[in-house]
Model the fold of this input.
Amino acid sequence: MNASGMTFVLSGVSAVLGMPFFQSIVADGSVRQDELDGTRENLSAIVTTLRSTPPDKIEAMVAQYNEQLTAYLDKFNSEWGRINSTPSGTHN
Done:
């Protein structure tokens, strides 16, 4: 992953967090509304910062944490895929 890739991926995750499913986990008590809102706001701020930062300024950070970033993304994608593969799109 590089700086542009990280910005792209986090923009996608940010968009996914706006889907109705995530509001449903607030409704069922799995997370609090303020937790979801805070995550959405923080991620949006991160994406805004990344978009306004020259890529060469963040490449070293991305390179240093690439393995961890990729692992977290893989875990998110795996869970999101599992949730979306259930008949009703519910979680456990």
